[in-house]
Amino acid sequence: MIPKKQTLEQTRKSPRISLKVKWALTVGVGIFVTFVTFSMILYGAMRQILVNQERRTVTDTLNTVVQRLSPVSGDLTMAQVVPRLEGAMPSGQTSIPVPSESQNRIFSDSVIQKLAQADVSVSVFSPDRTNIFQSRDTPITLGKVHGVEVQEANIDDFHGLVGTAPIYSATSSDLIGYVQVTDKLTAFHATMHEITLLIMGLSFAAILISILIGYALATRFLKPIKLITNAIDVVNEEPQSTVRIPALKRNDELGDLVLEFNGMLDRIQRYIDQQGEFVQDVSHELRTPVAILEGHLQLLNRWGKDDPEVLAESLTASLQEVTRIKSLIQEMLDLTRADQVDIQFPNAVVDVHQTVQQVVGDFRMIHPEFTFTLDDDLEQKTFVRMYRNHLEQVMIILLDNAVKYSTDRKEIHVSMAENSVSGVAVAVQDFGEGIAEADRRRV
């Protein structure tokens, strides 16, 4: 198993690519692929539509030529074909016409006139496949003819349509020849080339725009993560920092993340403050039990060991203080007494009367120079829902502070009485310098 530290080091050594860049590239590639896919579908559909139009033109031309030549009763000859396809051919011409610009005037009707285009050629063959008429040169030779057919052909420099059809005599129904129409699709190829260039240009523009849009969106969406990263850096450098992420005006997962992150920082800050306060309170919570133990041991050492009643009382008090010290040490380890008290001691109760009297008695013993006055208006046994150690800690902290800051008038009053609001009220009064205004808000 690879150690976690080693894995983190390997991860940090790998090339770093910003999440914004990854997001922008992902969005850009996604939009580009989608655009190219639809462009290819559109390109294929347009190509098929244009090819079908050219197929219909070639088919119409074949049918027109067959219609013009079918009245011939015998085998087709050049002398019979030329007059039927020629509109203004010079008299006396007996050879196959040579392609030239003057060929544009040999066709008289609208369909045949289309054949005057430079990329269209009409060839007529006799039944023995002898070429007897050819409007323009073409590299396509006559193949097998099974009926009216139009197919795509790619031979040498020719990339177009080839249509063939047999010619039957209208009078005898005999085969009198064949007709072949070739179309180089020059205009079609030019149009598709322009469409291809347009798609390529739009694709480049689409991927560029999509990357920019993706980067802008990533910057906007990842702004909270950047703020969180900055806040983490600040907290790492200064754990006591109060930096927080400003609340986002957005009701989504990132907004929830910011709220949860701020809440986590607040909890961490609260734990740090509690830890600091706990360290400050340790001097009160541990020094006092140790002083109580020392007082009882000194009492026993002087004369209490010969008095069974004093010996029993001192041993009982010492054991209680040892138990409380053990509890304090445990709480120091987990630092969770404030948050866990309701879970660890949900049903704990304490006798306020007995506990307060014991703590006051301990302070009378360890601070004989002070006068402790206890006004007790409670019944002998008054229970409240509270963990005993915590009540002792509160009383010890209050009395210890009272002793600490009562430098002139060494007099402390403690009172206990029933209260209609809280049930029991315990008050500690001293005549020292008092609590500073800044600290009162923390009480």
TrEMBL record:
Subcellular localization, as worded in the UniProt entry: Membrane
Catalytic activity as recorded in UniProt: ATP + protein L-histidine = ADP + protein N-phospho-L-histidine
Major location (coarse): membrane
Transmembrane segments: 21-46, 195-218
The protein's Enzyme Commission number: 2.7.13.3
Enzyme class at the top of the EC tree: transferase
GO cellular component: plasma membrane
Name of the protein this chain belongs to: Signal transduction histidine-protein kinase ArlS
Record lineage: Bacteria, Bacillati, Bacillota, Bacilli, Lactobacillales
